[in-house]
Amino acid sequence: MAIHILSWNVNGLNSPIKRTKCLDYLRCKKVSIALIQESHLKSADVHRFQNKYFKVISSSSAVNKTKGVLDSKAESLILEDCLVVLGGDFNAVLGPQLDRSHASKSDSVISGCFNSFLRHSNICDVWCLQNDGARDYTFFSARHKSYSRTDYLLMSPSLIPYISKVNILPIILSDHFPLISPLTPTSLGAKRNRWRFNTSLLQDCTFVADLRSYLMDFLQINRDSASDPQVLWETTKCFIRGKCLSFSSFNKKRRESRKFELEKQIDILEKELKDNFCETKRGQHDVDGDA
Known about the structure:
Elements: E1 3-9, H1 16-28, E2 33-37, E3 54-60, E4 69-74, E5 85-89, H2 96-99, H3 107-121, E6 124-125, H4 126-130, E7 139-141, E8 146-148, E9 151-155, E10 167-168, E11 179-183, H5 205-222, H6 229-275, H7 279-283
Helix pairs in contact: 5-6
């Protein structure tokens, strides 16, 4: 069972609409643990960023709406581990020449302190280990018209064998790119979920019409061949379940395909901007800010 860990500077969650979009995004990406920065939520409002799928397990807020971090976890996940997983926007880069599109003189000092922190804490930049020598960014500064990689997922070296990849996702809902990594510890077994009928399918006219037609044909073919009504009923339930799974799978693949195409288009545009910044193109791809 993969544990998907996401680190994201959301640039404000005071808007109810943005909170809902962010929570939907976490579920869409099958996130198990979300490390959220710059929530801009006061202590009394932290509970607003949760639903039946995600709960806030720890938080730190300022007295004003300018800071704040949250650690949200999927409600069904229980992870007992003493190893370190640290995600956040550090406002610094490990390698100025590689991690900034325009390096400044002050970067070398801050970078040295950042690297020293990693060595003394015995934690690793997992994206760098997976993409040695590669150049990519996680933040766009509209003020300086520059890109930088200031967002990191840092982990204990013992966890590295369980990391297959670290992805910088397309920029959505914020001025920072989310980072996500699947952690697959072999000590955790897969969880089996009991199938339940998705009642929302009854709102789909196409599904209802198709199921009614298929069910009538099924009963007409099998009614006389089953001597025991209970056998026919159990068989009918299996038939209905199969149709539900098939229809749901088709719809899910269609939605995922559409989302993938949209994210791919966003990713292509962002890469073009990273390589050759243009204010006109950037204006066509503005992201939602804080409310």
